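Reopening this one. Same input as before:
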Amino acid sequence: MLACDKLNRRDQVLAEMKRMVSEYGPQSGWAKANMAQNGAVAEANDLAEGALRELVQDYHQEAIKTKSAATYRLARDIYRQYLETFPQSESAVSMRFYSAEILYALEDWDAAAEEYGKVVEKAPEGPHARRAAYNAILALEKSVDTAKGKLKKRELGDSAKIEEGRDKGQLDRSRKLQIEAFARDVEEQRIPVNEEKLIAACDRYLRLAPGAKDEIVIRYKAAFVFYERHHYVEAAKRFGEIILRWPTDAWSQKAAHLSLDILNTKEQWQALSGLAQRFLENPELCPAGSKFRGEVARIAEGAQFKYVMQLYEQKKDYALAAKEFRAFVALYPKSE
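Same output, byte for byte:
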C-alpha cells in the first residue's frame, strides 16, 4: 500500500488498503487464527492502524494544498476504511472529526452531519465536541435548504477545486415571518427526516453549550421548524421559552409574533387578545413608542373585536356580547 502511494499509483492504493485490512486487520482470518499470539496480533494492528492514519493524514494535507476534489475523495475513502477498521482507537474521534470536515468540504451535508454527531456522541467532553455540534447544525441547514431548492446542489467533478479552509460562516439568522391565514383545523405536516435531524442537532448543541452566544438563534431555528410544519403546540412551547428568557432581544419579538399567529390560526380570539395584552404589559418586550408595540396593540384590538363578534354572531350570547362591546369601546375609544 505504501509502495503504491510512493509510486503515485492512487488507483491501487485503495485496493491494497482493503487487502491489508482484509488479510491482516482485527477481523481478518489471520488475526483470528493467531489469537493465542496476542503480541503478534497487537503489533499487526498497531502497524496497520498507524499506516492508515499516516496515509490519510498525508492525503488530507495534500487535498488542502491542491484543492483537488479527486484527492479529497481518496482521503474520504481512507478515513471511512480507518473508522470501520479501528473504531475504538485512541485517534478515532479526531479521525472522525476530520472525516466529517472532508464530507462537509465535498458538500455531502447529511453524511457530514452524521459524522459530526458521532464525534459528539463518542466524546462529549472532547476537544472537538462543541465545534462538531455546531458544524452539524450548519451542515443540516444546508441539507434542508438544498431539499427546499434554496441552495443548489453542485456536482463536484474530480477536477473541481475544494476550499476546505474557507470559513463555514455562522448559522442562518434570517427568518422571514409570513403570517398566513391558515385554516382553523390545519393538519400537522410530517416533518422531513433532515429537518428532524436539524431539530435534534440544535437541541444537542444547546445541551453541550448552555449559554452559547447563538443560543437564542438556535432555539428559534428549532421552534421555527415545528411552526412551519404546523406543529403548533410544540412551536408555541419553544417560542414561549424564548420570549420569557430574552424579552429584550429582537428574536423574542419574532417569537412573540409567531406565538400570536398560532392563536390567530386557531381563531382563539379571547386568548389572542389576552396574550397580546400581556406582551404590552412587558415594557422590555414592547418598549413605549416602538414599532413592535404598535403592531401588538393592533393585534390585541383586532382580536378583542373578533371575540365580541364571535359572541354576537356565532354564540348568540347577546347579553355577554353587549357587555363586551361596552368594554371594548371603553378600552379602544378611538377604534375604527
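So the earlier flakiness isn't reproducible anymore. For the record, The CA atoms of residues 112 and 187 lie 33 Å apart.
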